[in-house]
Design goal:
Blueprint (H helix, E strand, L loop, with lengths): L4 E6 L6 H6 L5 E15 L3 E19 H7 L8 E10 L4 E9 L10 H13 L4 H6 L2
Length: 137
């Protein structure tokens, strides 16, 4: 019996399906999406913060629970926790999805310009809105 796949919204470097495949995951059904009510914040890595006036853009895809456990077992992402979001797809439909965020957001002094540059490049390649891509810092 095949493992059940669940919807996941990624907004950081895990939007890159090739990166996920190199980590042993097999993402399927990739779709551009946004999550209203959240803003991107980059410290050492990316996280989303609640902000009623913002939208975070990314990719919704399907992965298994086992694949997610493997992805988030790495030390650099072990502090992320799943929460439920309602992602809006580009066709206007909505899909409930898991989204992984930090419980303790990065402080205002925390930054990672190298990570931000990689994320901007990836967001551009994935065709996310240009004004959003340029806001990634």
């Amino acid at each position: 019996m095949a493992s059940r796949r669940i919807e996941v919204f990624f907004y950081g470097l895990f939007m890159d399906a090739d990166l996920l495949r190199t980590n042993g995951a097999h993402p399927v059904d990739l779709r551009s999406a946004c999550v209203p009510g959240f803003a991107l914040r980059i410290g050492q890595r990316a996280t989303l913060l609640q902000n009623p006036d913002a939208r975070a853009y990314g990719i919704v895809m399907k992965l298994t629970h086992v694949e997610l456990e493997q992805l988030y077992s790495e030390a650099s992402v072990r502090a992320y926790r799943a929460e439920a979001v309602l992602a809006e797809l580009t066709d206007g439909s909505q899909v409930p999805a898991l989204c992984f965020n930090l419980l303790v957001p990065p402080g205002p002094e925390e930054a990672n310009s190298e990570y931000a540059a990689k994320l901007r490049d990836l967001a551009r390649r994935l065709g996310l809105p240009s004004n959003y891509v340029e806001s990634i810092q």
